[in-house]
Amino acid sequence: MKYSSILLNTYRICIFTVLIWVPSLFAQSANPLELTALDEYVHKVDSSYRYSVLTTVEGDGYKTFIVEMVSQTWLTENEVNLPVWEHFMTITVPDEVVSDISFLYITGGSKSNDAPASAPETDIKRALESSTVVTTLYMVPNQPLRFVDDSENPRTEDAIISYTWDKFLRTGDEKWPLRLPMTKSAVRAMDTVTNLMASNSGGNIEVDQFVVAGGSKRGWTTWTTAIVDNRVVAIMPIVIDVLNVEESFKHHFSVYGAYSPAVIDYVLGGNISWIGTPEFAKLMDLVDPYEYRNRLELPKFLLSSTGDEFFLPDSWQFYWDDLVGEKHVRYVPNSNHSMGGTDVMDSVDAWYHAIVHNISMPRYSWDVAEDGTITVLSLDKPTEVLLWQAHNPDKRNFMQAVIGRAYTSTPLNEVEPGVYKIKLDPPETGYTSYYVEMAYPSGIETPFKFSSGTKIVPDTTEYEWSLTPDSTRNR
């Protein structure tokens, strides 16, 4: 029983988190915190903000408000064609609401899209199962955008972010990074939900706490929304395995010897060439959630892809140990950046239900040793423990677009009570990716599924980061 004391101490130190609610913007950390341009922009009063209910859809056991919201004015017409940010929202309210906690999902969309006719089926299911108000916020960011001094028009998604990064890197003007208005969109959406629900037409329902989720750049915005607003009590960032951005980008290159087409906007936009410069460090201080990690003690459940086109499956190594407070991760097997065809939303539902209904999380910890040994210590009995693994016989590339749905699972047995261990030897040719997934009862039909980080063997790279930092550019 040599692991018993380690297991108990791991539980005490790493798993058991006491959260104290203090009505302050920076209640999540006892450390003194410095305001950044992100804080200042989000909390700056903007008279553009308004919303209106377009229609109300009655359903079986719920109703959905279809809302149009103006979140802010970002920049001016001298800089961008559409400075006023407009959004649609669907706010689904079950007939019985049992909690002041609400769910906010941040997603994308185009300015050319019509208002949704109804809420997503996932929202309706989540609202009815949890008996809480569930919202989807669309059009984050507003797009496409045309910048006045930009020859490449119009821009969407990463192309907008890359352009605004470049403007900041060249000028130092903190108004530029797109993460600021994206974050403010989510904060204004929470304001809208709270205000509408408190009205007579909304049912005089109290909503003042939020669990926030979103995928990709909206997953990044999930982090920054929690950073600036303490109404956020838990977060689920999806497919945004890139905290500690500079180290993640360097690792990306060292593995592939180039950059994936998925991140080509940051290459063509010249952002990569600034890595290692004071200007890039200042940008990361402003937008990288890793730099705000002492504010992020709230519960967090990271849902990442094993076959992501943007991020490598072992990117967790650059930030996981430094995250504070309650934290969980799940690498979803046989997934790409879209998470299509996976059970990721089941994981979202199970964890959200537990947050709302104060269901105890399973007590466990995991470690990936330098020699490749993955150890899971669990005080609570999992219903299933699986070893997931995939092999690429040619190169260190586990994108689903390259290897297909190659991950397979086998049951992993205890080596002693509460202890699970696995170490795979490097293959004769190529590379193997592996990790451990644990399932636990969640209080609803869908179980909790959490995992360890992913290990690659052999843990060698063929290339070396070699770009020379360059900030000697025309301003």
UniProtKB/TrEMBL annotation:
InterPro entries: AB_hydrolase_fold, PhoPQ-act_pathogen-rel_PqaA
Classification via Pfam families: PhoPQ_related
Leader sequence segment: none
Tree of life domain: Bacteria
Name of the molecule in the record: PhoPQ-activated pathogenicity
Native species: SAR86 cluster bacterium
